[in-house]
Write a structure and sequence with these properties.
With 185 residues, this protein is mainly alpha-helical. It has one domain (2-159). The protein has 8 helices and 4 strands. Helix 1 (23-46) crosses helix 6 and helix 4 packs across helix 5 (102-113). It is globular.
């Protein structure tokens, strides 16, 4: 099934193609935003940081996404909305700076030499953050600053063992299923 965002094929609106969104589209968004959020959360933990003061979006994507909707999706962590901004083509600007100014080039090289590579696939907490980030905006992380601007659904509570408060096993064991079936016969 799909949800029609724009029906350009209708008789009165021959101004473009039909635009729909499907469950596959929603899942792709969930996977992408969960990976981004989980990576951000992992970096925050590595820096012993519980919240961010400012977020800069770079590139074309960052120039066109609304900060509030990015936060509602759970793409980025909670932050004051007025502290989220687009910086445009940061890579291109940095390349021009490095090419035209030796001082900037040395500063960039110095910064690059201090970068610590983190393999998210090898980090035990990444998968946990990823699973929680699949929910919109997030299964467990509070978004108090966003909540001041938008009504959010209630969060799930998570116990010490990492299980969500309302979590129940999704699949029954084969033995349990066979036993229940025999009991009905």
């Amino acid at each position: 099934f799909s949800y029609v965002l724009k029906d350009g094929s209708a008789a009165l609106t021959e101004d473009g193609p039909k635009i729909t969104i499907t469950q596959t589209d929603v899942r792709a968004i969930q996977l992408a935003k969960a990976a981004l959020y989980a990576g951000t959360k992992l970096l925050m933990e590595k820096q012993n940081t519980e919240h961010v003061d400012r977020i800069h979006f770079a590139g074309a994507f960052g120039s066109f996404i609304d900060p509030k909707y990015a936060m509602v999706l759970g793409l980025i962590p909670d932050c004051d909305l007025d502290k989220v901004s687009a910086v445009g083509n940061a890579a291109g600007a940095g390349a021009r700076m490095a090419l035209l100014n030796r001082g900037y080039r040395r500063e960039i090289e110095d910064t690059v030499s201090k970068i610590e590579k983190i393999e998210t696939a090898l980090e035990p907490k990444f998968q946990e953050h990823f699973v929680y980030a699949m929910a919109l905006p997030n299964k467990v992380d509070p978004f108090p600053k966003l909540s001041a601007a938008v009504k959010l659904p209630p969060r799930k509570t998570v116990s010490q063992d990492g299980v969500a408060g309302d979590a129940a096993p999704r699949r029954r064991s084969r033995e349990g299923h066979e036993g229940r079936r025999r009991g009905r016969e």
